[in-house]
Amino acid sequence: MAAAQAARFVRALAEANPAPETELHYTSPYTLLVAVALSAQATDVSVNKATATLFQAADNPAAMVALGEEGVGGHIRRIGLWKAKARNVVRLSQQLLERHGGEVPADRAALEALAGVGRKTANVVLNVAFGEEAMAVDTHIFRLGNRTGLAPGKTPREVEEGLMRRVPPELLRDAHHWLILHGRYICKARLPECWHCVAREHCNYADKVLWPPAAGPRSGPQNGQRNGQRNGG
Ligand code: SF4
């Protein structure tokens, strides 16, 4: 997709949601970092439930280290991979104390050197906590970048680089939110809801689903239903 078309695509999302925000609950760069670290293979809703009590018990690195793996585990047991995540949260808190005086560094290399923190988590923290133009490519953005032609790529890194090249600079800061929310709620994995997609006219996806599957004879098996099944395969 050419940069001009990509700009129109992202602008359409921007106009529909001028002030996008992350759905994770946090109160500081540290609690954001922990929430994002917990969110891998878990829903934001489940993470928010866990952090509601976890952050009451510990909302800074020293308190988290004092809480310990078992203590952290007690709050996050309903989240996937909770044992490894509890270990990483305590370790990264210890590392923040040892290396950064208990502060979250606004630096990619320093973030990625923390336990359990990869490029995606670092990008979210750099973008949301520090206002940098970073593009965290999660499963939704990866799918959307490829499906729509916005930024095709075989790896999250390729999609990230394609988006960084094509999204207009003034929209880069918020594009991460627009694209995640769009992938999560409209351009869904199994059945993209193209019938009410604000970016539809700028999207290159060939099999757009133009009517809801149960919308009656107009949608029929040739449109929504059939396409929905194919997209799920
Ligand atoms: S038109 Fe359909 S495939 Fe394209 S971005 Fe919108 S929901 Fe996704």
Could you explain the architecture of this structure?
It comes from Teichococcus rhizosphaerae. Keywords: 4Fe-4S, DNA damage, DNA repair, DNA-binding, Endonuclease, Glycosidase, Hydrolase, Iron, Iron-sulfur, Lyase, Metal-binding, Nuclease. GO terms for molecular function: 4 iron, 4 sulfur cluster binding; class I DNA-(apurinic or apyrimidinic site) endonuclease activity; DNA binding; DNA N-glycosylase activity; metal ion binding. One of its GO terms (biological process) is base-excision repair, AP site formation. Residues 214-233 are annotated as: Disordered. Among the domains are: 29-128, Orthogonal Bundle (Endonuclease III, domain 1), CATH 1.10.340.30; 194-232, no CATH class. It has helices at residues 3-16, 29-38, 44-57, 61-76, 82-100, 108-112, 119-128, 139-148, 156-166, 169-185, 221-232. By secondary structure, it is mostly helical. The chain is globular. Helix 1 (3-16) packs across helix 10 (169-185), helix 4 runs antiparallel to helix 5 and helix 8 packs across helix 10 (169-185). Helix content is 59%, strand content 0%. The protein has 11 helices and no strands. The protein starts with a helix and ends with a helix. The structure holds iron/sulfur cluster. Iron/sulfur cluster (SF4) binds at residues 147-148, 186-187, 192-194, 197, 199-200, 203, 205, 208.
List keywords for this structure.
disordered C terminus; 11 helices; Endonuclease III, domain 1; mainly alpha; binds iron/sulfur cluster; 59% helix; 233 residues; single chain
